[in-house]
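Risk mitigation, structural track. In case the binding assays with carboxymethyl coenzyme *A fail to produce interpretable data, a predicted complex structure has been prepared as a fallback.
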Amino acid sequence: TGFTTLDYGFVNTSATKSAITFIDGDQGILRYRGYPIEQLAKNSTYLEVAWLLLYGELPTADQLAEFDDKIRHHTLLHEDLKRFFSSLPHTAHPMSVLSSATAALSTYYEHQSDPANPEHVELNTIRLLAKLPVIAAYAHKKSIGQAFLYPDNSLSFVDNFLKLNFGVLSEPYEINPVMSRALERLLILHEDHEQNASTSTVRLVGSTGANQFSSISAGINALYGPLHGGANEAVLDMLARIQESGESVQRFVERVKNKEDGVKLMGFGHRVYKNYDPRAKLVKESADEILSELGVHDPLLDLAQELEQVALEDDYFKERRLYPNVDFYTGVIYKAMGFPTRMFTVLFAIGRLPGWLAHWTEMQGDPQTKIGRPQQLYVGAGKRDYPGAV
Ligand code: CMC
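Fallback model:
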């Protein structure tokens, strides 16, 4: 048309202004609402950061206590929704279960899901923060054939989640503070990342006037792909395949460089970070520490470290400015905690939920928001006539 810029993958296009997250990809800087990720990961909690992302400032102690209390009181799933899980095969991927059950949540709250009603929006923000971890844990329990536990509202957000995943009905659950702190830290690192594919999806769906449940469910589906959140699962699968096959790290890297069968070094490369991913640096620092604190020695961590070293010294990766991203080392930690590989991206989704909600809410409140509707350059056939039509 002469008016359209062709930009595959939106490499050069800003679709919105946003005041939530700042990234400088060349310098490896990530800040939520101005606060450096390093400081938040070390000192804050998942819920405090969620508040920060949603409302722009750190909460006071009273605000945080009230927020935490509200979330604890919305953890229960409707008993009918629990039966929804039994209609799915136990082999279902937990990400599919998570997105389907999140979309299904919408059916229980249709009378309170008006995006223009701030009370509905706040209530559904609380509901999603409270219920997504429960759905995630039930997806896990279903996949291993164990009974669902009721949420234990005497526990913190993270401990409740760990108990729902690893507790069993007949035995008392013992909190492991090392695991709790490690998971809290990983969740914080995932909480937002400005206009990534899943957040852009949440915004696009939300721009049509769809409610939070539908928008977040769409975001979960976007995150599922191996080029996005699904990479954490793909990294572990890749490491396990190298280990099982006995292939040398050098040979694997050669295959990546030659793009043999489209094989990629999963957990490497990023659209925005071209020197290093500050989240990956923090995860890598934690990985050794957490594994030793949990008393786990995993040869896959050694393999990952070897792979990273070989890649970082190789011209292919240097020229393309490919470095480990957040997904490279997280899987090794999740595995040490006892999560099956197929739960890794679900953990990412729980981490990212506050960011999705914050972007959805920011978009609703922005007077400049319009329905998201990209242009195209048409390259198809010119006008032609259907046989017999003329
Ligand atoms: N292994 C091998 N080659 C790679 C990789 C990789 N992981 N990543 C990029 N390249 C190559 C790519 O083939 C291209 O080479 P050439 O110029 O010869 O065609 C060049 O580097 C530039 O890559 P690109 O595909 O144009 O970069 P992009 O910004 O479109 O893609 C990415 C970014 C993250 C999708 C990509 O780096 C990738 O596929 N990485 C592996 C999957 C992954 O780890 N994803 C997690 C991303 S971080 C967290 C999250 O978002 O969930």
